[in-house]
Amino acid sequence: MDTPAVRPGGDADRPWLVVVDPQRIFADPASEWASPFFPAARGRILMLAHHLGPERTLVTRWLPTADRATAWGEYFAAWPFADVPPTDPLYELVPEARGLSAHPTIDEPTFGKWGPQLAARIGAGPRSRPRLLVAGVSTDCCVLTTVLAAADAGARVTVVTDACAASSSANGAAALHTMSLFPPQVDLRSADEVLAVLVPS
């Protein structure tokens, strides 16, 4: 964890903030998938997005469009409340997330959001050195899978621990521990630690 999470300087040196799935299905207390930690994480996400700006912030959404002939069919059978059209209000962004990014949302039917869309948006390639700050929900599912796939692809990833919302304290701790096993590609920082570099005193 000696490598700085972010580097001050020109835009090319600034990281991308990837806000994973800030959607009603994970935030509304009435939802079966609501994270009790979402309100606290949301405040820190807003602070990070404010300092990085909409051009350097990306927002993802998980949509229920996977092929039901695959194991996803069993998944949706286990969670029938989520087996609704992607236009259902459950899958809308929470109001605070709607203006965070100047870019269209990155919509995927998979837990992990790293893929051709996200790679293209940040300009990932053989000679690029993308740096990501990852926040969002849930720490133990879509954040975890996004982070590990991005690290595998060669991105340098900082997980903003207290800007992530887990399904439970135990699951969140387990996910953070798992991600901590992948330095130097992945490091873990608090929002205050990241902001101290973004906004040096």
Quick description:
The chain has 201 residues and is of the alpha/beta class.
Structural descriptors:
201 residues, alpha/beta, Rossmann fold, six-stranded parallel beta sheet, 7 helices, 6 strands, 17% strand
Note the topology.
Layout: E1 16-20, H1 24-27, H2 38-52, E2 57-62, H3 71-78, E3 106-108, H4 116-122, E4 131-137, H5 139-152, E5 156-165, H6 169-180, E6 186-189, H7 191-198
Parallel strand pairs: 1-2, 1-4, 2-3, 4-5, 5-6
Characterize the structure shown.
It holds the Pfam family Isochorismatase. This is Nicotinamidase-related amidase. Residues 16-180 form the Isochorismatase-like domain. Keywords: Hydrolase. The protein is an alpha/beta fold and 201 residues long. It has a single domain (17-198), classed as Rossmann fold, CATH 3.40.50. Helix content is 34%, strand content 17%. The chain has helices at 24-27, 38-52, 71-78, 116-122, 139-152, 169-180, 191-198; strands spanning 16-20, 57-62, 106-108, 131-137, 156-165, 186-189. Strands 3-2-1-4-5-6 form a six-stranded parallel beta sheet. Strand 5, helix 6 (169-180) and strand 6 (186-189) form a beta-alpha-beta unit. 37% of the residues are buried.
